[in-house]
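Re: that backbone. Tokens:
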């Protein structure tokens, strides 16, 4: 059913690897997905994939204040013959990198909408010069619950970067790329409207699917059987089913509450509105 969608969506969907190094020199690496929208270098992903970008800016200011405070305390200690110290935050972000399809790319412009969990980024168009196929977005006025949808991304892959002190860069294991895709199917079940954004300028609107998105699919497309984008994978929700299942273990009956996990994607109305707002060219059907 989704062979056409898979062949189409894998052409414009790519891995997004975010590596973070903290003040205590520990390293974390996350893997998600992004979409190349057009030949102008515009990309689309989930906003939570880029949390590090915003946090790093805040931490850079705090680290600078800490360094100034430390220097002042050193002067005070020498002048007054006592010892006091500033205490650093071990989880300050000191270094981070965003690898698009295995390469660090300079972000020229970005718009991050945390409440709707969507981010638009513009990179140098030479970085997408080899891209030949671009996505088509569904017209939001035409969508109906019950439509079969496919989520695409890179689950079940462990991304583990190291940091090269000499070059001051992150490095991923050899042969880490290319990363295999993994699709999962479901149906469009309903819309989830969470009200207005804090500035009242937009709805906070999501599209629900009957199956959850998998870790590594965040920011990836949710497509119909033709590969047309209905949503961008954002998060999951868990609903209690109201009954318990039982199993016998060591002659004891064990009962567990049963739940249904569903996927949540950024609604196409939000996607189209933001593309129009920022005058980003795109195809719609």
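Recovered sequence:
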């Amino acid at each position: 059913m989704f062979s056409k969608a898979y062949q189409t969506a894998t052409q414009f969907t790519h891995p997004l690897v975010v590596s973070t190094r903290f003040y205590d020199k520990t390293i974390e690496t996350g893997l998600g997905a992004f979409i190349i929208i057009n030949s102008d270098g515009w990309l689309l992903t989930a906003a939570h994939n880029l949390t590090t970008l915003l946090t790093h800016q805040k931490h850079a200011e705090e680290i600078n204040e800490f360094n100034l405070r430390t220097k002042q305390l050193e002067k005070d200690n020498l002048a007054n013959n006592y010892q006091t110290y500033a205490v650093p935050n071990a989880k300050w972000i000191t270094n981070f990198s965003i690898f698009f399809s295995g390469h660090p790319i300079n972000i020229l412009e970005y718009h991050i909408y945390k409440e709707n969990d969507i981010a638009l980024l513009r990179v140098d168009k030479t970085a997408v010069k080899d891209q030949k196929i671009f996505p088509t977005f569904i017209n939001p006025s035409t969508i109906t619950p019950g439509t079969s949808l496919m989520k695409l991304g890179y689950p079940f892959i462990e991304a583990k970067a190291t940091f090269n002190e000499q070059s001051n860069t992150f490095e991923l294991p050899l042969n880490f790329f290319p990363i295999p895709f993994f699709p999962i199917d479901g149906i469009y079940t309903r819309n989830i409207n969470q009200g207005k954004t804090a500035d009242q300028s937009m709805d906070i609107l999501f599209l629900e699917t009957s199956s959850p998105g998998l870790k590594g699919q965040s920011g990836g497309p949710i497509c119909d059987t033709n590969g047309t984008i209905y949503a961008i994978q954002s998060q999951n929700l868990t609903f209690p089913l109201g009954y318990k299942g039982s199993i016998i273990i060591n002659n004891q009956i064990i009962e567990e509450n049963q739940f249904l996990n569903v996927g949540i994607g950024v609604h196409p109305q939000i996607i189209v509105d933001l593309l129009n707002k920022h005058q980003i060219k795109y195809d719609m059907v």
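Helices lie at 3-12, 51-80, 268-277. The longest strand covers residues 229-249.
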